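Whether sequence alone determines local backbone shape is best considered at the level of individual chains. In the encoding step, the backbone of a single protein was reduced to a row of integers, each denoting a local shape. For completeness, the protein is quoted in full, as a sequence line and a line of structure tokens.
***
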Amino acid sequence: MVPVLSLGTGTFGGSGEFFQRWGQTQAAEATRMVDICLDHGLNFFDTADIYSAGVSEEVLGQAIKGRRDKLLIATKATFPTGGGPNEQGSSRFHLVRACEASLKRLGTDHIDLYFMHGFDALTPVEETLRALDDLQRSGKIGYIGASNFSGWQLMKALAASERYGLARYVVYQGYYSLIGRHYEWELMPLGLDQGVALMVWSPLGWGRLTGKIRRGQSVKSGRIASGGAVGGPVVDDEYLYRVVDALDQVANNRGKTVAQVALNWLLQRPTVANLVIGARDEDQLRQNLGALRWSLTADEVALLDKASHETPIYPYWHQRDFAARNPKPTSW
């Protein structure tokens, strides 16, 4: 059982130029943020071995010291942690060492949820799953998940797990937001069919749905202003403004913030089990927690759906003409 929100700790550490733009939260402030989360029933914390070159895991480990039994931790492996050919990927060689290194940085003897951060096409899926199965049987990890896989890659892994009786990916961590709905086209139907839940990363669209962006208004502070949206998906300005206009309308009517409305919309979507929220400081964290304990109306959801609509790519636009026999979980 997990809460509907988890705290993403990509802002912890701030080591290296890329992650400095995300945030530079150190142990004292991180401890305070963990305190606030636990006070609100949010006991799930998400990190990765590449966040600030492992410093995010170290800071999180310091922040949870003495209360490990009260919370859940998710971390990830696969992406490069060094320059050597075996310091990346999802091979047995790398995963065993990556897991041990994460355990040490986190100061714990087990990881509750261990994600493959990306698909490794150079390693047989059976090798990856066997290594994860062994780590699970040893008690070092509890459950396994996949992140950033395409639909066929996830399905191939699920089929291999069933065929050989190996540990199974029970959750997918992927990008999904009001300005990034492509998850709905293939991965959402797969998740419903195969019983794979979704943890959403960047539910506020790489910081674009925080309420700081408006038509004709420059962003003067925060992650985007510091270059923190680098690496994120390109979004057409007019499309973004259309979505923000709809969010503004709903937010003003409900007495909520733009970010709270954007998060609440996601909490009502099929397969969504958890949103990984980020926060550069205590104030942002408390604002994001305001997305809970209320729900958008059907009319409000329809308004946001219409504003964020995009014509899907082939074959999905073609499948809409056969909806009676090939129904979709959401309207797009």
Residues 5-322 form a domain with the TIM Barrel fold (CATH 3.20.20.100).
